[in-house]
Amino acid sequence: MRYFIKFTYLLAAAINLAPAIGVYSNDILGLLYGVEIPSSELSLLLRHRAVLFALVGGLLLTAAFQSHLRTQAGIAGLISMLSFVVLFIVTGADNESLLRVALIDSVVGSLFIAGFGLHLLKRGSA
Questions:
Q1: How far is residue 90's CA from residue 23's CA, in Å, rounded to a whole number?
Q2: Helices 96-125 and 26-33: angle between axes, nearest 10 degrees
Q3: How does residue 126 score in pLDDT terms, banded at 50, 70 and 90?
């Protein structure tokens, strides 16, 4: 159980850290999301989003090895991944790259829910 929990935190960290590379350029953002970045304002918003992904991913990575951070990191990670899936569905976005992101977040989010749930159960029984 301990290794599964750590694995799910590491996996969620990787998924949240991957888009952080978008902070470096509009070209990378375009590749990540399959969208054009037509203005400096949109570039700013998407690059800021990349920074926030780095923060969440870093927190999840740290929590994989520091169990006292797992509850807070788990909540942040779940909000990060599952809110995108919900917003993707609600907005009716029709973009293959964004669909891929939503599917990855759905699969990893499902595994992470299991790991987070086990963490809460383990914490409650300790």
A1: 26
A2: 80
A3: low
- pTM, two decimal places: 0.91
CA–CA separation, 20 and 44 (whole Å): 13
- The answer to whether the CB of 43 falls within 8 A of the CB of 7 is no
Q: Which helix (H) or strand (E) holds 83?
A: helix 70-91
Helix (H) or strand (E) holding 64: helix 40-65
Tokens of 70: 């797992």
How is the chain split into domains, by residue range? 2-125
Query: Who contacts 51 (Cβ-Cβ below 8 Å, separation ≥6)?
Result: 20, 23
72: which 2 tokens? 């807070």
Query: For 38, which DSSP code?
Result: -
Output the six-digit token pair for 28. 């990378």
Q: Give the tens place of pLDDT for each residue, 64-106.
A: 999 999 999 999 999 999 999 999 999 999 999 999 999 999 9
Give dist(CA 43, CA 52) in Å, integer: 14
